[in-house]
Amino acid sequence: MNKRENIEQLSINFDLYTGKSSDLHSIKRMLSDMERLYYDNKAFRKEVESNDIIVYEYYILEIPATPENLLYGTTILYPGKVGNEYFMNKGHFHQILNTSEVYYCLRGEGYLLMEDPEGEVLIAKINPGTSVYVPPRFAHRCINVSKNEPLISFYSCRADAGHDYKTIEIKGFRKLIIEERGKPKIINNPNWE
Ligand code: ZN
Asked: Which of 36, 94, 180, 182 has a Cα-to-Cα distance from 159 of 20 to 30 A?
């Protein structure tokens, strides 16, 4: 039996500037999809009602969700803020918690925020050319601190790792990144848990 029968295409092309791929489909997240994730809910409501824009999109390889496969794609996080909190993606734990992930930044400027269930927090600054290893058991979220550029990264993890968004939607991350006097600042999340 041909072991690669389910992998239709071995080479996938990504545009290095936009992060997009015409070989894959993307999933788009609007600001209105980010309910309860930004700490300033008043600012969030105001933004959603006046200007419900796309916050991020990600391209993802469709591949059988088995432990021997890797999935990969790009994430494109647009610039913007809700109140003084930078645009970010939802962030997630993996359903198979004890799995890792790799990010490689192609464009923009931002942070990868990580935390494990016991509360250890890791924060990595990312710029084009930076790779970040997300250790097993750590939830992860990208934050774009650029005023005008998208934050674009390539990522890869075990194909069966799965996404647990719920835990973050309910509890949030322990830390947030806001803008203060024009610069990023890491603060404790006042709404955590
Ligand atoms: Zn992940």
From this structure: 36
59-75 burial code (b ≥16 CB/10 A, e <16): bbbeeeeeeeeebbbbb
Q: Ligand 1 center to residue 62 CA distance, Å?
A: 15
Give residue-wise pLDDT tens across range 133-145. 999 999 999 999 9
- In this structure, are strands 110-115 and 101-107 parallel, antiparallel, or unpaired? unpaired
Please tell me the distance between residue 50's alpha carbon and the centre of ligand 1 in angstroms: 31
> CA–CA separation, 126 vs 132, rounded Å?
8
Write the pLDDT tens digit of every residue in 3-18. Answer: 555 566 789 999 999 9
104 pLDDT more than 50: yes
Residue 159 CA to ligand 1 center (angstroms) comes to 10
- Ligand 1 centroid–CA 105 distance in Å is 15
Task: State the amino acid at position 173 in one-letter form.
Answer: F
Q: For residue 164, with 0-12 CB atoms within 10 Å meaning exposed, 13-18 middle and 19 or more buried, which class applies? A: middle
Expressed in angstroms and rounded, the spacing between residue 54 Cα and the centre of ligand 1 is 20
